[in-house]
């Protein structure tokens, strides 16, 4: 048995209803796709054990409902997240326009310690026609958020996107551990 610590990462997937959040998660975790659309009610999650950059990880991937009526549940699901994935449908420009509001809503409800540097990854799902230049510009103007065009149906770039998500989440967790260690040292020096 290995003495190596297994890192657990909490990843939240957000985006409008019907963009393929559940399909992406199922393709990544179960290597399966279905054409039958079934809206997520509230939230669901799957776990996947993987190795990224020689580190063993368990990813808890939280799939949240895209309908506005379920957004009030967000605060309970978003807390403690290590990375947030914003998904839009490449064939529906309106879902791309919603990215900013999903990002803002996540930051408000999750209240991360360092919102400016919290890790996000953008996934344009349902590879088709879109203005890639506009998406890349938005990502660049939002702290160089990584961008992937995927197809959950055909398993295009799904693994690569989730590997980047894991890297971002690991970096976030390591930074938070360092901050907590520094805060503990400061508190000890004050008391003793």
From TrEMBL:
It holds the Pfam family Ras. GO terms for biological process: autophagy. Residues 173-192 are annotated as: Disordered. Transmembrane segments: none annotated. Keywords: Autophagy, GTP-binding, Lipid droplet, Lipoprotein, Nucleotide-binding, Prenylation. InterPro entries: P-loop_NTPase, Small_GTP-bd, Small_GTPase. CDD domains: Rab7 (cd01862). GO terms for cellular component: autophagosome membrane; late endosome membrane; lipid droplet; lysosomal membrane; melanosome membrane; phagocytic vesicle membrane. GO terms for molecular function: GTP binding; GTPase activity. It is a peripheral membrane protein. Signal peptide: none annotated. Its main location: membrane. Belongs to the small GTPase superfamily. Rab family. PANTHER family: RAB FAMILY (PTHR47981), RAS-RELATED PROTEIN RAB-7A (PTHR47981:SF20). This is Ras-related protein Rab-7a.
């Amino acid at each position: 048995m290995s003495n190596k610590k297994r890192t657990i990462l909490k990843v939240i997937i957000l985006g409008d209803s019907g963009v393929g959040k559940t399909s992406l998660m199922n393709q990544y975790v179960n290597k399966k796709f279905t054409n039958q659309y079934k809206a997520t009610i509230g939230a669901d999650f799957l776990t996947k054990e993987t190795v990224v950059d020689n580190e063993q990880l368990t990813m808890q991937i939280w799939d949240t409902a895209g309908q506005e009526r379920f957004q009030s549940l967000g605060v309970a699901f978003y807390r403690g997240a290590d990375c947030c994935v914003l998904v839009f449908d490449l064939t529906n420009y309106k879902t791309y326009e919603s990215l900013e509001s999903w990002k803002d809503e996540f930051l408000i409800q999750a209240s991360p310690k360092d919102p400016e540097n919290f890790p996000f990854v953008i996934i344009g799902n349902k590879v088709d026609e879109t203005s890639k230049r506009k998406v890349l510009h938005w990502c660049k103007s939002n702290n160089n958020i990584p961008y992937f065009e995927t197809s959950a149906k055909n398993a295009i770039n799904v693994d690569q996107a989730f590997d980047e998500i894991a890297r971002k989440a690991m970096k976030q967790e390591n930074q938070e551990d360092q901050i907590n260690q520094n805060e503990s040292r400061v508190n000890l020096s004050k008391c003793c």
